[in-house]
Design brief:
The chain is of the alpha/beta class. It has a single domain, classed as 3-Layer(aba) Sandwich (Rossmann fold), CATH 3.40.50.620. It contains six helices and five strands. The protein has helices spanning 15-27, 47-61, 74-81, 93-109, 129-137, 148-157, and strands at 3-8, 30-36, 66-70, 85-90, 114-119. It has a five-stranded parallel beta sheet, with helices on both faces. Helix 4 links the parallel strand 4 (85-90) and strand 5. The chain starts with a strand and ends with a helix. The model has no long low-confidence stretch (mean pLDDT 93).
């Protein structure tokens, strides 16, 4: 059984993230969705809130997905939990250069951990957490961009 980890800030988790989670689960029997705790980044939700939202959403689609948070280097976290693979989503060609550099650095730091990239589905390829937050803050409809549980929390946090 290959254990994979799907990391991200997930601030908040979007239907694009859910697309990657579902497809990664078809490939890997053991999947951990890992919320990155980056103190230099300003997030709308705390790491604990993001973990809770993801758990609430994945519970309804696949109870076998683990959700956790981590600090520090992703490859060190992956090694600690016994993950042999890091799953990343690619939305557009513009993501590739950063992901390529990240892949090379991760391979240098932990050569035994492989990077696997999944292309986002065509219907969610434009989605990002930042774009969802912006649309929601300006009063736009995000019903088809995030799961309902996330929509309610996001609108509440934004005072909408």
């Amino acid at each position: 059984m290959i254990h994979a980890v799907y990391p991200g800030s997930f601030d908040p988790v979007t239907n694009g993230h859910i697309d990657i989670i579902l497809r990664a689960r078809r490939i890997f029997e053991d999947l951990t969705v890992a919320v990155a705790c980056n103190p230099s980044k300003t997030n709308l939700f705390t790491p604990a809130e993001r973990v809770e939202m993801i758990r609430e959403v994945v519970r309804t689609i696949d109870a076998e997905v683990h959700v956790d948070s981590f600090n520090g280097l992703l490859v060190n976290y992956a090694k600690t939990i016994g993950a042999a693979v890091i799953v990343r989503g690619l939305r557009a060609l513009s993501d590739f250069e950063f992901e390529y550099q990240l892949s090379l650095m991760n391979r240098r730091l932990q050569p035994d951990i492989q990077m696997v990239y999944l292309m986002s589905g065509a219907d969610v390829t434009y989605l990002s957490s930042g774009l969802v937050k912006e649309v929601a803050s300006l009063g736009g409809d995000i019903s088809e961009l995030v799961p309902d549980a996330v929509k309610h929390r996001l609108l509440q946090r934004l005072g909408k």
